[in-house]
Amino acid sequence: MYVELHAASAFSFLEGASLPEEIAEAAAHFGMPAIALLDRDGVYGAPRFHSAATRCKIRAHIGAEISVVDFGNQAGCPPWLPNQFPPRFVRLPLLVENQTGYRNLCRLITRYKMREKEKFSGAATLAEVAEHAEGLICLTGGEEGLFASSLAQGGLELAHRNTKKLAELFGPNNVYVELQRHFDPLEEKRNQAAVRLAETLHLPLLATNGVRYARSIDREILDVFTCIRNHCQLTSAGRLLQKNSKRHLRSSEEMAQLFSDLPQAIANSSELSSRLGYTLADLGYEFPRYPVPSGETMDSFLRKRTMEGIHQRYGPKNDEQLFAKAVKQVEKELHLIEKLHLAGYFLIVWDIVCFCRKHGILVQGRGSAANSAVCYALSITSVDPVGMELLFERFLSEERADWPDIDLDLPSGDQREKAIQYVYDRYGQLGAAMTANVITYRGRSVSREVGKTLGFDTETIDRLSSLVGQFEWRGPEDNWQTYFEHAGFDVHHFLIRKYLQLCDRIQDLPRHLGQHSGGMVICQGQLDSVVPLEPATMPGRVVVQWDKDDCADMGIVKVDLLGLGMMAVLEECLQLIPKHYHQSVDLAQIPADDNLVYETLRRADTVGMFQVESRAQMASLPRNAPVKFYDLVVQVAIIRPGPIVGNMMNPYMRRRQGKEEVHYAHPSLEPILKRTLGVPLFQEQLLRMAMVAANFSGGEAEDLRRAMGFKRSEERMQQIETRLRAGMQRNGIAAHVQQEIIAQITSFARYGFPESHAASFALIAYASAFLKCRYLAAFTAALLNNQPMGFYSPATIVKDAQRHGLRVKPIDILRSEWLCTLENAPNKAGQLVPCLRVGLRYARGLRQKAAEAIVLARTRQMFSDITDLVRCVPELQKPELECLGEIGSLNSLGKSVHRRSALWQVARATRSAGPLLDSIADESESSPLLRMNNEERLVADFHGSGLTPGPHPMAYCRKSLTAMNIKRAIDLERIPDGAYTTVAGCVIARQRPGTAKGFVFLSLEDETGIANVIIHPDLYQKFRLIINREKFLSVSGILQNQDRVISVKASHLAPVSISAAETESHDYH
Amino acid sequence: MVFACIFIPDFPVQAITRQEPDLRSKPVAVLQGAAPLTKVFAANPAARDRGVELGMTKLQAESCGPLEWRWRSLAQEASAQAALLDCAWTISPLIEQPRKGSAIDFCDSVVLDLAGCEKLFGSPEQIAHHLQRIAAAAGLEANVAFAGNPEAALSAARGFPGITLIPPGEEAAILGALPLSSLGLPAEMLETLHRWGIRTYSEFAALPEIAVIERFGQEGKRWHQLSHGGDPKPLLPKQFPDRFEESMDLEFSVDLLEPLLFVLNRLLDQLCLRLRMHLLATTELKITLTLDPKILCDQSPLPGSDESVSQAPEAQDAGFVRTGGAACCAPTNGLHIRNLRLPVPVNESKFLLKLLQLDLQAHPPGAPVTAIHIQAIPTRPRTRQMGLFLPLAPEPEALEITLARIQGVVGEGRAGAPVLLDSHRPNAFRQQRFVLPEASLTCPPAEHPPQAALRLYRPPLPATVQLQHDQPHTIYFNHARQPILAFAGPSRSTGEWWSETPWARDEWDVLLPLPRPQYQSNHPFHDNSHKPQETALYRIYRDLLSNHWFVEGIYD
């Protein structure tokens, strides 16, 4: 029986063309009992390969091809042929025999990867290989290997010497002379030499196929990858491409026939396979222990900290019943934590939270951790799970084997980096690392890369990739063929057809390894013996070779330190408010029932607010009409695919408005669904429904949720459904009710939002709403300083703030800092109120270093004029000065300075008069240039800063628009439902949500607010170009005003000529 | 007012419409780029009015309504440019070709110094009309402008349609309304001026000169003066003659090669004499044969030649200038043009005549010839130091004639030195022009282990192969069936799967009994019965796409 022991997957990044799963499935298809994956310089695909092999009931051998520096480069083309092979180090294929071998392999890879200055440039030294040779089996390799290289460089003599060296390093029983047959005479010549060498050195032969793809057709993908790797086109790649398509997985029979002259080479493959006892099931991972004072155990220490926390959290609430309930819940949780030996994990997360609080970093736990009273007591989360009756089993249950998931939200930027560096410092560089993020080929990257390899010009590629949709909704029109037709290509042309096929096949294959936004893994021993580590592109960061799902599958616990822009906004607000409003705000103490906040939310006046600012949220807020915090929790959770797909949103809204009676599928569900008016909205409710209606245990219910997750299997679903039905039958629930409950569970569990998560988000949403309503200037400044984030562009945020009465001052070279700041200025009543000064960061192209130099120079002496500015801040480059001049930031440098005159002076001041005339003072001269008109100012503002503090572009044309009977956004609420009307504005958002069946939603902004437009899919197809390309649109159609949710159902669209300003739109996200 | 400018708007379109006058009233779009990446390269006003934009794909432009499509022709553009120059030279010997437009390869305008021409050709208006008429006769609709300096004339011709006469001193006033983009400013400067709100010549001209110099330097000063309609730069006349040319109008059209060669011989003698007088030689010879327009319509081949005129369009498709070959062809309106590229500088008429003869035999003009124009690009003659111990190489001139003869027999692109291509495709090579390597004493190449040489059959011999267990067993080729005694293989190579011409084949080396008849010796000491069977080693292959077998070659 033949076992393939040298296969590589697409995780060899551009050197393999199939996913590990495909290779494992192909091996199972051929009836192989095992297969080995040896990716280049890593074990990137090993977890997926292991899982797939387990599913296919075959054994997954682990290994890697290791680049070695001391053996020179891989064999190239014979010298008489045109040769363009880039030099690459010889690679040793290593197979893992036992756990020691696996650890050695991981450490070896980590050792040389950590030295890498560029991706995939590292290689091990022979000494390092020798140091880590134990437990590893070495093969002599195929065309990339040592034997081929030695034979090419120094003939049989060198090959003999080098192979002997390998035998000394790994031991004679651990080196196999590898033979591959791909119908290539040169390779066969090498094989003959290898057979002679094996006889001389008494080494066993091993047949492999050097697999690079699962099916022979995938050679095409490998050829494309080769071109991408070598930055060339298919037509010019020549011998870099594969000679034929034979490096696919071959069946035992085919291999046996191929090596019929050397049967021992085939027999050795199964013999060696039986020697390889290691699989990833024996990873040897251990979570770190938290150091506790002597006399304490981790459990006792956790108990003490929790009890302290309970008193702090629940004491001030003065609710004895709640306190008792909390203590009881905590006891239950601690008992389980003790039983599952998870105290260390909680303490380590608590330790990180303590560090953050000590250093003034805003932190809040979210996710299912918010279901835990222990987490609440330890201040990891801010939502009271006892008060809100959240389901603990969603977080932790005895039946589950995996680790609980605690996510910490931190302010994005430097503050989060501090927390990450703390974890590194605490657990050592090789003890903690970020999880990787496997970047795959997606629509745009595929179209770009494949286009290049096929020789398309840059302009065409740009056009194509810009057309590739990023829509959530994928209608029948959203396919490659349509994109190409819209780009003006003939889809029937052979080359285009090939392009389409390739784009489709390459989709989702790994492209490179990125860094996950916040997932950290830590390990008690050395993390580098569990998974290889490598440096991330960001200095000071180390990543593991596996992504977060792989880590979870392998049982490695992860702590997510996620950067949340809104947390940074809140933190900045807390610093700005005392300074400019002379009030102090504590987020934990903000009034929970502020009427102004709820009124604003009910009006859907929510631009900039966390989670409730999107168009869809705005469209449902007036209907939900929140009056208390829990309404906001529901609001956060309801605009999600789950409630929408599961058809839960409309019943809830109708019941909320009293238009429909509240009823429950079964009386036993009333306590569970009472808060959401009988409509299940949260994952926890579904789990409880299963627990109550079908007597599921907490763990079983959680199992149900996971079974219905993204990787749902029909078989497992059916099993669970049978159990649900059986449970409900036992409880005497009628058949039709059973069906209703099952439909609710199955249609919903996949996308449902956890209540705990919604509550954590709702806290932040409420805080953001409160700060916006009460401290608009501070909130807007913080929001602008943390862009990009949220749903709207800075221009829209500024316009919204201005509509709410905030005075926004333009960038000023004498007053602006790098960030947006607050200044006190008198209002109409003469009172000093905070107003916003746009920061220099909004001057496009201005470097932070130059901006800081401006601010520093200002502290020494104010600039008298532009020449003085140029002299005092030599860091400023001419384009930066031109940008500042163009947006009016230099107007304050003189009485009659306007934008054009500033540009005029900048041009003079930045041009040296030469050494002879340099010392002569310039004669002041007035600028002959005309002032910019309104349109020019608008264009300059948007071009130079992306926003305008002046009037909205629509305001300049209002007279003529009114004459054309075009309404303002604010006018729409006075127009009766069903009336035909026309509205025009700047397009600030285009959306095509996955749940809207191809309907497109536009947001049009004018000087009075935002108008919503609904476009039917047919109309969209008709006006596709106009809708996607035009910046200003007028839309005519029937006005819909349902429950104060106002929109225009478009029947005709037309571009309107308002301004050439480069306004931005948030499209299809 | 001593300078004139002729400007041809939409030059690539006009280069085509001058040969197809019917198209002038229709919307025409000129395409460029290989399918499927074909884009609109140029369009006439009628097409632009329908919404055609440059850079659109053909499919996009098709949505603008019915259009006339033409492929871009460099040859036609070159001839249009030559025609434009000819137009200018009919009036003045001093002409300048200004800088080219950004996208086009050939200049679409020409500036003429008309000093003194009034006495010959009349008033500026008359000259302008004359120029327009000549251009129209050459198939070009031109804008003509007159001004006191070349740049003003150029700006006016580019900016205003028809005829524009700018009286002296009124340049600034007349040009003032033109957009700055007509001035041809550097992109960076144009952007700065746009930022300043300066859009037209007059706005730029209104800026104080010293202030402009302070901001843009001397370069700025020049452009500023240009915006006034002033031109500090004198005309840089096109060198005339910057090449050696000989022409002859024939009294009677010549329809046989021999009398044509007789005339050519005389011209070449003159040309080479002039070259030699200047101690020069030529490496490039351009022969333009003006063909009889009446007979040209019939497209009849030149009697006495063995090839038809249908070669001309092929040569046109292959491009105006074909590199690597000895000659290239660019037929224009009624002209038959041959370019001879020579490997070494030559000033011997006999050699040139022989080459021309071979070339015209291979590429005969399509009609009787009425005029001949020969143009030689001058260069320094060859100097060579012979080495006492250097091996003798053939004379380059003789070699070139031999190569031209071979090419005449085997066809263009089929003679030269083979160069291996970087491809897995077996036998992949291309022919490049053979150039005699410089003789030098070189070290002997490093020793390689001896390898068997494979003699290829060209084309490969079709064969029939019987297989046993998927392995070759018997082969039938050259009218003989032979058993395969031994084999090695297969070696498989497949490639170019992305193209419409993929290839895939399996190669085998097979040992066959030698078909040579056995010589029966009567010598008493020669025992025929013990002679071993003679064998030969062949390479055979199976084309996997057609499933046909071939014998590719035999090993030595």
Structure in words:
- The complex is a heterodimer of chains A (1069) and B (556).
- With 1069 residues, chain A is α/β, with parallel strands linked by helices.
- Chain A contains 43 helices and 23 strands.
- In chain A, α6 (185-201) links the parallel β6 (175-179) and β7 (205-207).
- In chain A, α22 crosses α32.
- Chain B has 556 residues and is an alpha+beta fold.
- Helix content of chain B is 29%, strand content 28%.
- In chain B, a hairpin with a 6-residue loop joins β2 and β3 (39-43).
- In chain B, α1 crosses α4, α12 packs antiparallel against α15 and α15 (349-362) packs parallel to α16 (396-410).
- Mean pLDDT of chain B is 79; it is low at 297-331.
- At the A-B interface, α7, α8, α19 and α38 of A face α3, α11 and β19 of B.
Topology:
The complex is a heterodimer of chains A (1069) and B (556).
Chain A: E1 4-7, H1 20-29, E2 34-40, H2 46-55, E3 59-73, E4 89-96, H3 99-113, H4 126-131, E5 136-139, H5 146-170, E6 175-179, H6 185-201, E7 205-207, H7 219-230, H8 234-237, H9 252-258, H10 263-275, H11 298-314, H12 320-339, H13 343-358, E8 364-366, H14 373-377, E9 406-411, H15 414-427, E10 432-440, H16 443-453, H17 458-467, H18 480-486, H19 494-506, E11 510-522, E12 533-535, E13 542-547, H20 548-553, E14 558-564, H21 565-581, H22 595-602, H23 615-624, H24 629-638, H25 641-645, H26 649-656, H27 670-673, H28 683-694, H29 698-707, H30 714-730, H31 735-748, H32 755-774, H33 776-785, H34 794-803, E15 808-809, E16 821-826, E17 832-837, H35 848-860, H36 866-872, H37 878-886, H38 899-909, H39 934-945, H40 953-956, H41 958-963, E18 980-991, E19 1000-1006, E20 1009-1015, H42 1017-1022, H43 1024-1029, E21 1032-1042, E22 1045-1055, E23 1066-1067
Parallel strand pairs in A: 1-2, 2-3, 5-6, 6-7, 9-14, 10-13, 15-17, 18-23, 20-22
Antiparallel strand pairs in A: 3-4, 4-5, 8-9, 10-11, 11-14, 12-13, 16-17, 18-19, 18-21, 19-20, 21-22
Helix pairs in contact in A: 1-2, 5-6, 11-12, 16-17, 16-19, 21-32, 21-33, 22-32, 24-32, 28-29, 28-31, 32-33, 33-34, 37-38
Chain B: E1 3-7, H1 11-17, E2 28-32, E3 39-43, H2 45-49, H3 58-62, E4 68-71, H4 74-89, E5 95-96, E6 109-113, H5 117-121, H6 124-137, E7 143-147, H7 150-159, E8 163-165, H8 171-175, H9 187-195, H10 201-205, H11 209-227, E9 244-254, H12 257-277, E10 281-291, H13 293-296, H14 311-317, E11 327-329, E12 335-346, H15 349-362, E13 369-379, H16 396-410, E14 417-420, E15 429-432, E16 454-468, E17 471-477, E18 480-483, E19 486-495, E20 503-513, E21 535-543, E22 548-555
